[in-house]
Amino acid sequence: MTTDQRTVAGSQVGGGVVDPAAAPAESREPRPDPRRRANRAWLLVLPVVVSVAFTAVIPLMTVVNFSVQDVFSPDDRVFVGLDWFYEAVRRPENRAAFVRTLLFSAQVLLVEIPLGVAIAVAMPRRGFWVSVALVLVALPLLIPWNVVGTIWQIFARPDIGLGGWTVNNVFGVGYNYTLDSTDAWVTILVMDVWHWTPLVALLAYAGLRSIPQPYFQAAQIDGASAWATFRHIQLPRLRGVLTIAILLRFMDSFMIYTEPFVVTGGGPGNATTFLSILLSKIAVGQFDVGPAGAFSLIYFLIVQILCYVFFTALTRSGR
């Protein structure tokens, strides 16, 4: 055997460079394309796509169809283009409802975000009372919206309600949310604060529990006060959680409907007629599906634009 033959034989036996022609047939088979495997994964989300199409996209397209028509009957329609959109923007009651809703959302954020953070900071961190505090704080969130409205409708009654009777007879305030627009506004605001501040508190509490303990130990060694600890350790760590809380509370408060509708019905007068209540009156009360469709699309765009502005401002401020 020559030297070259020994080299080839040694490479085949000793694990060196192997001749491709001498390799097994299995190793020469083409490997499966990972892109084809990834394309199969779309089959798993196909039910979700179909569900969203039937529950969101198709109804949205129906609303768009109604918004450009004047519907007299199922078989009698007239194409009007963007006339309903122009009318929705020009109507004074629509602009007033928009300002009213925006003011309510701003007041909700100014009250619920600081209050929720304060409750989260005051909640216990360990022991038996942690479970008790979490259950008590979460109780208002378990009550359905229409039940919350019914509870406060009775509770705030000046004649038979415990809250209304206490305000009138103990504090000597002439309170009546059915007659006074300011009382109705305050009632809706307090009701929303009672119902949804626990959500902010639970989110902030989860954010506080995620802060590593060595941060607090270092602050204690440095002699930092409680306010300094909150300002420089807890609050910066809550930035992401508070961004979510602000977006959730803004969207929900800007689209509020059930609670004020049950308590005041939008009154007295138009004092608590928010955009959602006005939209329901146009769509259901008057059955003007054309103006209601245009109104709802404008409402949808306003919510999306404001949420984008909020999210962009909050994320950029955290950089």
Automatic annotation (TrEMBL):
Annotated stretches, region: Disordered: 1-34
Localisation per UniProt entry: Cell membrane; Membrane
Alphabetical list of PANTHER family matching this protein: GLUCOSE IMPORT SYSTEM PERMEASE PROTEIN GLCT, TREHALOSE TRANSPORT SYSTEM PERMEASE PROTEIN SUGA
The protein's name in its UniProt record: Sugar ABC transporter permease
UniProt family annotation: Belongs to the binding-protein-dependent transport system permease family.
Topology of the protein relative to the lipid bilayer: Multi-pass membrane protein
Lineage per the UniProt record: Bacteria, Bacillati, Actinomycetota, Actinomycetes, Streptosporangiales
InterPro entries in the record: MetI-like, MetI-like_sf, Sugar_ABC_transporter
Positions with biased composition (Polar residues): 1-10
CDD domains found in the cross-reference section: TM_PBP2
Pfam families: BPD_transp_1
